[in-house]
Design goal:
It is built from six helices and four strands; from the N terminus they run ααααααββββ. Strand 1 and strand 2 form a beta hairpin. It is α+β, with helices and mostly antiparallel strands. It has a domain of about 110 residues. The longest helix has 24 residues. The chain is elongated, with a radius of gyration of 22 Å. Helices cover about 50% and strands about 20% of the residues. The chain has a four-stranded antiparallel sheet, with helices on one face.
Amino acid sequence: MNNKKNLIWVVIILIILVVGAYFLFFQKNDEFVVRDKDSFTSQQDVLDYFEQYKQAQNKDIYGGKTPEETLSLFVDALKKGDVKLASKYFVLDKQKEMEKELSVGKQNDVLKLLIGDLEKENKKTCYDYRKACEFTTFDDNNVAEFSFVLSLNELTNIWKIESL
């Protein structure tokens, strides 16, 4: 009877190990990978890429229901020093690049300057035709000094940072 129990436990452990190994080694990574335009080898390759991009956009959960909410989430992540999270508030094709840039900014202790610029009073201009809003901050002489653009991911209705 004791051997039977041990055999059952061994089988259960083996099943867990096999299933774990399957998910670790054979499941596709869902992370969207940006490709250089010169890497496409055919028209079908381009179409497949855009289909993957659309699928990744459908799964994108990082951002707010308004541009202001996305900016607030972004600033909160920066204040915590979480550049990986902060980069997720950018449009998909800029996330890796911005994670690197924000990491450099964190190392050089300049994120505070960026946060300061983002928290300044700003003028918002929205463009319905392209589902985007541009924010501009001004200095004391009313000269534009900083501008950033957010766009709407229409598949999820979440606003993403397009440029800083």
